[in-house]
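Page 37, continued from 36.
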């Protein structure tokens, strides 16, 4: 049977490539930075322009489809995942990197139907790496198949995480305490590319054995979640339970045993959910 969503996925790959060229071009110019929720939550005109470019193009081609886009939600759109075909878009994942010229910047496009993720496209546009995965059909980087690492020893693992953008001292204490406990297992090292999507693609490639973070949003992880699972990895909540895309928490690992081992060291907390009703 023909794949119902292959057309949409082909379009997503083409759009990610176009968007990546816009982002690379913008890296050559001076970037005007604006703040969103705080002084470390940044947005640029390029984030907004790229999201509009992607959404408009999808609307023209698939007029009945719905969207969850980072900058649209910031502008007041609802963040709800229904059963309708829904594109979940982060126009620039790694805006802080983009602003500083740190070379991990990705366009992330996920696609869900009946609340199930069908495909994910993450384009790390400075490296020119196109990560793609279609549910049940494997994960690829620039067309080459991806496989997570076969490391089963936590003490020989590299773990990716981020300091995050929630900076009240109590939260920072929890974030640092989790990192301290993981370092003291000890693991080989802790890394962080500055983008959730690229960190997860690193799990899919096998160059890190796990990634976790609390504070991410559904658009940071939707596309890369398909890439990790199609590369043979597992996704879970930071407590080791089932992943909830709207919960702002993710743990991706090369195996369930590595994931569960890390989850035992994480001080979990619960940020306001992505699908929480807006404050009155
Ligand atoms: N100051 C900050 N430091 C790190 N990540 C940040 C951040 N502010 C927002 N983020 C978001 O948190 C995610 C995980 O760290 C990133 O992918 C990034 O997505 P963004 O660039 O699309 O906002
Ligand atoms: Mg992001
Ligand atoms: Mg973004």
């Amino acid at each position: 049977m023909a794949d119902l969503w292959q057309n949409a996925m082909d379009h997503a790959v083409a759009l990610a490539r176009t968007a990546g060229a816009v982002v690379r071009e913008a890296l050559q110019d001076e970037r005007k930075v604006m703040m969103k929720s705080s002084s470390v939550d940044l947005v640029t005109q390029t984030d907004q322009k790229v999201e509009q470019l992607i959404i408009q193009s999808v609307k023209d081609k698939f007029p009945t489809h719905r969207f969850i886009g980072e900058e649209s939600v910031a502008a007041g759109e609802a963040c709800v995942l229904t059963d309708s075909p829904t594109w979940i878009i982060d126009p620039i994942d790694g805006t802080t990197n983009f602003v500083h010229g740190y070379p991990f910047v990705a366009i992330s496009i996920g696609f869900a139907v009946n609340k199930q993720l069908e495909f994910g496209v993450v384009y790390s546009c400075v490296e020119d790496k196109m990560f793609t995965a279609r549910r049940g059909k494997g994960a690829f980087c620039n067309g080459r198949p991806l496989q997570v690492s076969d490391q089963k020893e936590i003490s020989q693992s590299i773990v990716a995480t981020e300091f995050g953008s929630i900076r009240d001292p109590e939260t920072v204490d929890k974030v640092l305490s989790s990192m301290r406990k993981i370092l003291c297992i000890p693991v080989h090292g802790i890394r962080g590319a500055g983008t959730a999507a690229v960190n997860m693609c690193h799990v899919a490639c096998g160059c890190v054995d796990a990634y976790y973070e609390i504070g991410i949003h559904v658009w940071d992880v939707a596309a890369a979640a398909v890439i990790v699972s199609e590369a043979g990895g597992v996704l879970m909540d930071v407590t080791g339970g089932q992943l909830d895309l709207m919960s702002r928490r993710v743990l991706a690992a090369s195996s369930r045993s590595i994931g569960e081992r890390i989850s035992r060291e994480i001080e979990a907390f619960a940020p306001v959910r992505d699908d929480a009703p807006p404050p009155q």
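The longest strand covers residues 116-124. Flag for discussion at group meeting. The chain has two domains: 6-145, 154-263.
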